[in-house]
Specification:
With 240 residues, the protein is α+β, with helices and mostly antiparallel strands. It is built from four helices and ten strands; from the N terminus they run αβββαβββαββββα. The N terminus and C terminus are likely disordered. The strands form two sheets. Strands 1, 4, 5, 6, 7, 8, 9 and 10 form an eight-stranded antiparallel sheet that branches. The protein has a two-stranded antiparallel ribbon with strand order 2-3.
């Protein structure tokens, strides 16, 4: 999970990190797929390679979930493919949110990159561990994306809306504790036309066994989500 050698004293303590990494990947592959053990803490607060925008309904990929047709209004779908996720968040933001991580990130293998793409960054600096996932999912229609967004946010109660981000955005933060080690995780899910953007950001301190503050995790996840949505929309700003 990490290329740099770790101090031997941390080997046993990093066991929950492996579990956390697997959980983070699973969650971003299907946003809000798993629930947290300790429940939600806080809701939302008020540039890279872009996704392909559709000009017509022709040339459609015959893949379930792909943006291949038109909405109920008869308008062409906004997006036909997902943008490159590892360039959707700036290197400056990656460095700030995941100190010590390789800024190029690591893209997770996908069965169809035109439909779903995910990039991950993770690193342990000293005793502080951080993990960031950014995922794009392109669906057949705006209506399908709306239904998926509503279903996934409903499964994660206790969060709140994030104003001015996509067509709809939701943020939730959870705290989990395993063998006295705390981990705090923030998830932001955004719908923009027929596409969904999911960001997962979490962290732990293996010296104090405490988790980062709720506000730090929430703001970090929202910042990454704003940049990811801007990449999807073609680089247009989504606010500060």
């Amino acid at each position: 999970m990490r290329d740099l050698p770790l101090p031997l004293a941390l080997t046993a303590r990093l066991t929950p990190v492996v579990v956390l990494a697997c959980a983070g990947w699973a969650l971003t592959s299907g946003p809000f797929a798993a629930s947290s053990a300790d429940g939600p803490e806080a809701g939302g607060q008020g540039a890279g390679t872009t996704g392909t925008r559709s000009g017509s309904a022709s040339g459609s990929p015959a893949v379930p979930g792909a943006s291949s047709g038109t909405s109920a209004t008869g308008q062409p779908n906004a997006y036909t493919s997902a943008p490159a996720p590892c360039t959707a968040v700036s290197t400056k933001t990656v460095t700030a949110l995941v100190p010590g991580a390789k800024t190029a990130g690591k893209e997770i293998a996908s069965t169809d990159e035109s439909v779903r793409r995910t990039c991950s960054w993770n690193a342990l600096k000293g005793y502080d561990y951080r993990w960031l996932d950014v995922s794009f999912e392109v669906m057949r229609t705006d209506e399908a994306a709306t239904a998926a967004y509503q279903q996934r946010t409903a499964a994660k109660s206790g969060g709140g809306a994030v104003p001015g981000l996509g067509d709809a955005a939701y943020s939730v933060v959870n705290l989990t504790t395993e063998k006295k080690q705390q981990t705090r995780e923030g998830v932001v899910l955004v719908r923009a036309a027929n596409a969904l953007v999911a960001v997962t950001y979490n962290g732990s301190d293996f010296e104090t066994k405490k988790a980062p503050a709720t506000d730090e995790i929430n703001k970090g996840a929202i910042k990454a989500a704003r940049e990811a949505v801007a990449a999807l929309l073609g680089g247009r700003s989504q606010g500060n």
